[in-house]
């Protein structure tokens, strides 16, 4: 069983970056930035064997020439850059980003990106009447069977602004 703790990557594109992800197995700690804990596409290995992502490295380097973890001094020529290609990440095995909502799908990142966007049945929304978080597929039944809201919707809408947006959408989306 995979750890319930999500790990984040960055530098691999908007579809993956900074999204807590459950990797199966978990990413090895030595491949993560020793400071922020993320897996970066580009990192720097210090001579003391601590790895820093570019953001952490350049911010720390601006302050001093010491490792932020163990305070050992290093010279720029002792730092080894490392790159991980997006193609390598796409083969890693992960759980669906909706695992916390009940989805048990688990596969390669490349497969899970498509699953999440097109097939996952465990996306959630907030009911606009009572505000409860609920699976999107269960929302119509929730509302039709008498949701807990006793009066008006939880979110108030400016009817004039809403009407203007609908008019704009009709002009843009439904061109003759």
Write the layout of secondary structure elements.
Blueprint: E1 9-10, E2 39-40, E3 42-45, E4 51-53, H1 54-63, E5 80-83, H2 86-90, E6 93-95, E7 106-108, H3 109-119, E8 124-126, E9 133-135, H4 139-144, H5 159-173
Parallel strand pairs: 1-2
Antiparallel strand pairs: 3-4, 3-5, 6-7, 8-9
Main sheet: strands, sense, barrel = 3 strands, antiparallel
Order of helices and strands: EEEEHEHEEHEEHH
From the structure provided, what is the oligomeric state, counting identical versus distinct chains?
A: single chain
**Low-pLDDT stretches:** 151-157
**Average predicted local confidence, pLDDT:** 86
CATH A-level architecture of the largest domain: 2-Layer Sandwich
As a percent range, the share of helical residues equals 25-40%
**Largest sheet, spatial ordering of strands:** 4-3-5
Number of strands: 9
């Amino acid at each position: 069983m995979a750890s319930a703790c999500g790990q984040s990557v960055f530098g691999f594109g908007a579809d993956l970056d900074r999204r807590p992800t459950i990797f199966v197995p978990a990413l090895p700690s030595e491949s993560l930035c020793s400071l922020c804990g993320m897996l970066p596409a580009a990192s720097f290995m210090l001579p003391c064997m601590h790895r820093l992502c570019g953001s952490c490295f350049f911010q720390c380097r601006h302050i001093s020439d010491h490792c932020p973890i163990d305070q050992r001094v290093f010279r720029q020529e002792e730092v080894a850059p490392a790159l991980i290609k997006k193609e390598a990440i796409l083969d890693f095995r992960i759980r669906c980003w909706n695992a916390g909502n009940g989805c048990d799908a688990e596969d390669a990142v490349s497969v899970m990106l498509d699953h999440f966007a097109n097939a996952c049945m465990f996306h959630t929304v907030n009911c606009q009447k009572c505000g409860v978080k609920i699976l999107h597929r269960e929302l119509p039944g929730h509302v039709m069977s008498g949701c807990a809201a006793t009066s008006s919707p939880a979110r108030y809408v400016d009817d004039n602004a809403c009407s203007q947006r609908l008019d704009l959408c009709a002009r843009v989306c439904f061109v003759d």
